[in-house]
Design brief:
The protein is built from 14 helices and 21 strands. It is an alpha/beta fold and 505 residues long. Strands 4, 5, 11, 12, 13, 14, 15, 16 and 21 form a 9-stranded mixed sheet that branches. Strands 1, 2, 7, 8, 9, 10, 18 and 19 form an 8-stranded mixed sheet that branches. A hairpin with a 2-residue loop joins strand 8 and strand 9. The chain starts with a strand and ends in a 13-residue tail after the last strand. Bound molecules: flavin-adenine dinucleotide (FAD). Flavin-adenine dinucleotide (FAD) binds next to helix 1, strand 11 and helix 10.
Length: 505
């Protein structure tokens, strides 16, 4: 029998839960971390962004976690932990395909969009090989001597003053008593499930599902572009060193390349256009999509599924959003509170941004009457960020039939995230929400884009141009990065915020 008393029990040891455990321990609270699984294990959600990096840096500095600090940029990560697998992410690359046709690059880059997120490799974002990265964070918890019960699934019971968590680890009973439970269980939403809190995800604007896995032997896209006569000299960075998106018919594919030659790839499908057919095996569905797009078939011709997970994982509708993210004596991290879609790679940033807000609440308000209002403020931020990312993603799905509409729609996201990024880099972000999601006008702009897209005739040049003009004008107050004015068509080399000199390496 293992019994333990804690101020805070953190459920879930993804990077989010482990980081919370480390910070709460630094704040002097008694913490216990529990996970039903054991590391290393496969996890999805791998692509960081400049905002995610900045928050990770600030958390590592504020809470004196020097071993976490190097993970905030590609160069410092590689130098500090050469064996901890990541991938180089210089930006966001998009390529538009037509069913039944090979990809044909154009001199005017009309079917390509490259948006740089960093100016050089050393300062760039990373793809996180989550099996390794989450194991690293969990090892930090062990190094800090924080009680960590892996392979332990517990039943939760609220008593008058707190929680009783009871389960088993390797056949032996485990009991943890805690004043507060922090739910970092992601999609499982363990606390919301225990409390019967509804999932209102069906109300979200985005409708998508995914089929994904890890692969070896996936060809580089720049080599395939070169074979097809593409003008790579205009690319602001090597297009594979990115979150690479193939934009398809009512669907898209992500390709993230790691330093160990493995690739994370996933199809994300609009469920209204491509509903799930349970009779069709995921492998067959994957093969069917490759069969429709000759360039994708060529890119995956030699690909083999890697283990873990050793198979394709297929989800139902991805969108979920709990009715509450906090309550008396509990709070859910953003990924347990809700999720929209992998498009725009917002998950790690939202997780770290929410975590930062929540840890500040513990730092300032734990044990005081102000703690409840601080949790409520955290919930407002999480829900506003989820609501905005939902619309930012939904407009991109609505725009997918026409790549000009799609590119213009991505600019809504880039304007929002870069505006926040630059405010944060210059110390002006304060209590602002990520993506400037506290800005009502921005929500209204994206809602209007959504309404306009619903009425637009994608084939009509004049209405496409009018939509582009609408987005360009609407984002003008946030557009500090020259969006819509690239030096070469659809090629954006300079969206990255300058970094303070002492933190460049
Ligand atoms: C298909 C898909 C693609 C994504 N792509 C991206 C991307 O490209 N970029 C990005 O930034 N984000 C992406 N995300 C989001 C990203 O996955 C999350 O933001 C991130 O994983 C959140 O980390 P976390 O530690 O909070 O939770 P998780 O990573 O979900 O970890 C949850 C942990 O809780 C444990 N657990 C579950 N149930 C229980 C229980 N009952 N008791 C105890 N432990 C439990 C699990 O074993 C796991 O260790 C994607 C998400 C999905 C679904």
């Amino acid at each position: 029998m293992r019994e333990h008393d804690a101020d805070v029990a953190v459920l879930g040891s993804g990077f989010g839960g482990s980081l919370c455990a480390l910070i709460l321990d630094r704040l002097g609270l008694r913490v216990a971390l529990l996970d039903r699984d054991a590391h290393p294990r496969f996890a999805i959600g791998e692509s960081s962004t400049p905002v995610a990096d900045m928050i990770l840096r600030d958390l590592a500095l504020r809470y004196e976690l020097p071993r976490i600090l190097p993970l905030w940029k590609y160069g410092s990560w590689r130098a500090a932990y050469p064996d901890l697998v990541n991938g180089l992410k210089r930006g966001f690359s998009y390529f538009h395909h037509r069913p039944g046709e090979d990809f044909a690059p154009r001199a005017d880059h009309a079917n390509e969009l490259l948006v740089a997120a960093s100016r050089e490799d050393a300062l760039s974002d990373t793809h996180w090989f989550r099996a390794d990265v989450d194991a690293f964070f969990a090892d930090e918890v062990r190094r800090a001597d924080i009680p960590f019960f892996d392979r332990t699934e517990v039943a939760l019971r609220a008593d008058g003053r707190g929680w009783r968590l009871e389960g088993h680890r390797e056949g032996a009973p485990v009991r943890v008593g805690a004043a507060f439970v922090l739910d970092a269980t992601g999609a499982a939403g363990a606390v919301a499930e225990a409390l019967g809190i509804a999932d209102e995800g069906a109300r979200l604007h985005t409708h998508s599902r995914a089929v994904y896995g890890h692969f070896s032997g996936v060809r580089r896209w720049d080599a395939m572009m070169t074979e097809r006569g593409g003008r790579l000299a205009d690319h602001p960075y090597p297009c594979d060193a990115a979150a690479l998106h193939h934009i398809l018919d009512g669907a898209w594919m992500w390709i993230l390349r790691f330093g160990n030659d493995l690739v994370s790839a996933g199809l994300v499908l609009d469920t209204r256009r491509h509903p799930l057919d349970p009779g069709l095996a995921p492998e067959k569905e994957w093969a069917r999509w490759l069969g429709r797009y000759p360039a994708l078939a060529a890119q995956f011709a030699e690909a083999r599924l890697a283990d873990p997970p050793g198979r394709l994982i297929r989800t139902g509708r991805l969108q979920r959003r709990r009715a509450r993210a906090v309550g008396p004596r509990w709070a859910a991290l953003p990924h347990a509170a809700g999720f929209v879609d992998p498009l725009h790679s917002a998950g790690i940033a939202l997780t770290l941004g929410g975590l930062e807000r929540l840890m500040r609440a513990f730092e300032r308000d734990w044990g005081r009457p102000s703690f409840g209002p601080a949790l409520d403020a955290y919930e407002r931020a999480v829900f506003a960020e989820l609501a905005l990312i939902d619309r930012l993603v939904a407009v991109c799905y609505a725009a997918m039939p026409d790549f000009r509409l799609f590119s213009a729609s991505t600019m809504l996201y880039f304007a929002a995230t870069i505006a926040y990024e630059q405010a944060r880099a210059s110390g002006r972000a304060g209590e602002r929400f990520l993506l400037c999601a506290d800005d009502r006008r921005l929500h209204a702009v994206v809602a209007e884009a959504q309404e306009r897209l619903a009425r637009i005739d994608a084939g009509d040049e004049a209405s496409v141009a009018a939509y582009e003009r609408f987005v360009e004008n609407a984002i003008a107050p946030y557009n500090t990065a020259g969006l819509f004015r690239p030096p070469a068509p659809n090629m954006y080399p300079h969206t990255a915020a300058p970094l303070p000199g002492d933190l460049r390496s």
